[in-house]
Specification:
Blueprint: E1 2-6, E2 9-13, E3 40-47, E4 54-57, E5 59-60, E6 63-66, E7 72-75, E8 81-84, E9 101-109, E10 117-118, E11 140-146, E12 165-169, E13 189-190, E14 285-289, E15 308-312, E16 334-335, E17 411-413, E18 435-437, E19 480-481, E20 507-508, E21 517-518, H1 526-535, E22 544-546, H2 558-565, E23 570-572
Parallel strand pairs: 11-12, 12-13, 14-15, 15-16, 17-18, 19-20, 21-22, 22-23
Antiparallel strand pairs: 1-2, 3-9, 3-11, 4-8, 5-10, 6-7, 6-9
Length: about 575
């Protein structure tokens, strides 16, 4: 068990827990032995007494099927072999504890032919008038096969929902096994399978939700292993595999392997794209060289068990996208510094992290997208390292939910931004806002400072706003709202709750209100309220201005109210 010290915290990285292994039911019919040089496929099939025991097989190469019930049929290459197995034709002594009888279906090549491809039928076999709507070969529970001439098993057993065990005896020449077991939800064990020649393993085991045991796969010829184990929610350990230079993407490879506790690779130095590679797993630690990495999008997204991450040998300027990389990694306590000088997309990369991790190594000078980079980060106290330059186009919710954050960058350059929606939302401890430079293109202030309880001073902003809804809502300590251009805001609710519950507010310098606005529950005296009335623009549809529950509200005279009502406003005092 590894012990990690981080800023006075002691956390542990548990060893991989062993689990109960798959055990074949003892009352299943044994499949015949196979050896290198054989060219056969055995399928163990459960036969139900109530019927519906339909089979449809399809192979490349003229083939013969012994259905195990006394019937033998022959078929041309790439045609459907359809058959219904009757309860009375299955051996009575094969009854299992689950109430099935069993037959062994045997597929062989016809004389002078070779089996090269196990094809997926386009649909299940459905006899006329049967009303059957089940899946393809749903009663196949075990497959054992051999054959050196097979080159393609893409989709071979896809949707075989009853399949529990697979074994490939000897070597083969398969180059494509994509989707081979895709959506086999009851597959638990792959005993042996030579993958040394396989190039495409994309989606091979995707959504095999019961899979717990696989052999060590030889990936020496692989070029595509994207989605290979995605949604294998039960697997807790995969034997280590070595990646060749031809594997450059791990996109979705292990995503949602919820119980997987270790990275099942010996090396990752050739991989460029890690999109969601280890997302939603139970990996505890990561320590690899990423010499070729360019994108780490969602790499550990929602992997809430991971505690330490160490990237090595990332060349300077090579990474371009780390969006969502560490998002929702609640247990993360340490990230080894790595180069981010070329990263343009930081969206959500450090969101929802609970510990105060030192992130000051992060170079954001090339950043374009900063949306939610720290959203919900309850641990962080110092974000002064963030450098938002004129490259930035998106700062939406940049600091949203950073409830403990106290140190901010001196400024944010908003030259190419149009919205500051939620940028500082729920920043409970913020007292002074960074200087917001070059804000002339800003049009949205929706919830920008909502629930910034300790904000003393609002920043100067030169943009022409189209919405300021809830912009300063619950800014209890704010004393003055500067002059902002709200002349384009004419429709409800685009200034709704603009300054509601600003208990310390003494003055608003806005001169362009013409849409419903709320200054209720603030600290405004009579003179300040009258100033607001004097600065109101005329409106023609009876907009309401709320000024109730202010110290000066009871002192308002009929003449004071007439200032606003004379401009077409309804006053709620």
């Amino acid at each position: 068990m590894a012990i990690i010290l981080n800023k006075g915290r002691v956390t542990s990285t548990p060893s991989v827990v062993d689990r109960t292994k798959y055990t074949r039911p003892s009352d299943w019919t044994d499949l015949p032995e196979l050896s290198q040089g054989d060219e056969k496929v055995y399928l163990l099939v459960n036969v139900g007494e109530d019927g519906g025991n339909y089979m449809r097989l399809k192979f490349q190469g003229d083939f013969q099927v012994d259905w195990g019930d006394g019937s033998v049929t022959t078929h041309s290459s790439n045609t459907n072999a359809d058959h219904e197995i009757l309860w009375d034709d299955a051996p009575s002594n094969s009854l299992t504890s689950q109430g099935y009888r069993q037959v062994i279906v045997t597929v062989t090549a016809q004389a002078g032919q070779q089996l090269t491809h196990w094809n997926l039928p386009t649909s299940p076999y459905v006899p006329d008038g049967s009303g059957y709507n089940g899946s393809i070969n749903h009663l196949v529970c075990r497959v054992k096969m051999a054959g050196e001439n097979f080159t393609n098993t893409s989709q071979a057993m896809r949707f075989h929902k009853g399949l529990k065990e697979f074994e490939y005896v000897g070597t083969n020449n398969i180059t494509t096994a994509s989707y081979m077991f895709n959506n086999c939800p009851n597959l638990e064990k792959v005993t042996t399978f030579d993958t040394s020649n396989i190039e495409n393993l994309s989606h091979t085991f995707r959504t095999c939700s019961s899979l717990t045991e696989v052999p060590a796969f030889d990936l020496s010829s692989a070029t595509n292993i994207t989605y290979m184990f995605e949604n294998c929610v039960s697997i807790y350990k995969i034997p280590k595999m070595t990646l060749p230079p031809t594997v450059v993407s791990l996109q979705y490879c292990l995503r949602q392997c919820y119980n997987l506790q270790e990275v099942p690779f010996n090396n990752l130095n050739y991989v460029k794209n890690f999109f969601a590679a280890f997302s939603n797993t139970s990996i505890r630690e990561f320590n690899f060289s990423l010499d070729s990495a360019t994108s780490l999008v969602q790499m550990f997204y929602q992997t809430n068990t991971i505690q330490t991450i160490k990237f090595h040998n990332i060349p300077v300027g090579q990474l371009t996208d780390i969006s969502y990389c560490f998002g929702y990694c609640y247990s993360l306590t340490y990230i080894k510094p790595f180069d981010t000088s070329g990263v343009t997309n930081f969206r959500n990369c450090y969101s929802y992290i609970d510990f105060d991790i030192d992130l000051s190594f992060t170079d954001t000078s090339s950043g374009v997208n900063f949306e939610s980079i720290l959203e919900g980060n309850d641990g962080i106290t110092d974000a002064s390292w963030i450098n938002v330059t004129s490259n930035a186009t998106n700062v939406i919710e940049l600091f949203f939910g950073c409830r403990r954050l106290e140190k901010y960058p001196d400024s944010l350059d908003l030259t190419n931004c149009t919205t500051i929606q939620g940028t500082f939302l729920n920043n409970f401890k913020m007292k002074e806002c960074p200087t917001l430079l070059n804000s002339e293109n800003i049009t949205s202030g929706f919830r920008t400072f909502q629930n910034c309880y300790n904000l003393n001073t609002a920043p100067s902003l030169s943009g022409q706003f189209t919405t300021v809804r809830e912009m300063f809502n619950n800014c209890y300590s704010l004393s003055t709202i500067p002059q902002y251009d709200l002349s384009l805001i004419v429709a409800y609710p685009n200034s709704f709750r603009f300054a509601l519950n600003c208990n310390g507010l003494k003055k608003s310098l806005i001169t362009t209100h013409q849409s419903q606005v709320n200054y209720a529950n603030c600290g405004l005296g009579r003179d300040a309220i009258v100033d607001i009335f004097n600065n109101l623009m005329t409106n023609t549809d009876g907009r309401t201005i709320y000024v109730g529950s202010n110290p000066g509200s009871p002192q308002l005279t009929a003449g004071d109210l007439a200032i606003a009502t004379g401009k077409g406003w309804t006053v709620s005092a």
